[in-house]
Amino acid sequence: MNKDAMDVEAAVLAFTHAPIGLAVTRDRVIERCNARFCETFGYAECELPRRSLALLYPSHEEFLRIGEIGMRRMRATGRYADERIMQRRDGSLFWCRVRGQSLTPETPFERAVWSFADISESRPVVDLTARERQVAALLAEGRTSKEIARALDLSPRTAEAHRAKLQAKLGARNTAELVARLTGLPM
After folding, report:
1. Kind of pairing, strands 21-26 and 93-102?
2. Looking at the structure, do residues 67 and 152 belong to the same domain, yes or no?
3. Residue 4 falls within a domain, yes or no?
4. How many other β-carbons are positioned within 10 Å of the β-carbon of residue 108?
5. CB 19: neighbour CB atoms within 10 A?
6. Which residues, in sequence order, are bridge partners of residue 83?
């Protein structure tokens, strides 16, 4: 076997058997994915190719909103990373660490490679509204209530009210404890 063939074989093995979910997408539609990706979301491998990533979000609105954010970041750097709540086939929600790399920087979603890691063991999932999930994700990034209000086009009081609801739902006594619970850090 020549070196090029060995390199191709190694790349296929790495993609297929990676210990993290991997997907290659074209315009946010799954072209290829590995077994861990399918396992993470509760699908058989043959079910996901040619399906939109929207299938894996809690709502179509979140798919669109995160897509807009991702597009802006990927246009600037060619990469995207966040932690967000995703949805399994059975409808259950879980925290997921998502990383993406565009293969076409001028049109970031045209072709991209993504990794998806289930981080729900270290981060609680509670019944949150879509807006609470948005606020939780921004809090987990370390944003202040004022920054969250600007990012979501809310009044600062409304952002504070969402933060207070999150504290109550997660049983956190203060913002530091809330962020620790959202990020899975030990207290």
Report:
1. unpaired
2. no
3. no
4. 23
5. 8
6. 97
Strand pairing category for 79-87 and 93-102? antiparallel
pLDDT at 1 over 80: no
Same domain, 134 and 88: no
Contacts of 60 (CB under 8 A, 6+ apart): 54
**Rounded to the nearest 10 degrees, what angle do helices 145-152 and 130-140 cross at?**
130
- Spatial CB neighbours of 33, under 8 Å, sequence gap ≥ 6: 21, 22, 23, 24, 45, 48, 49
In the predicted model, what is the mean pLDDT of residues 20-38?
97
**pTM of the complete model:** 0.71
CA 24 to centroid of chain Cα atoms = 15
Pairwise CA distance, residues 171 & 9, whole Å: 50
d(CA 147, CA 155): 10
Length of the chain: 187
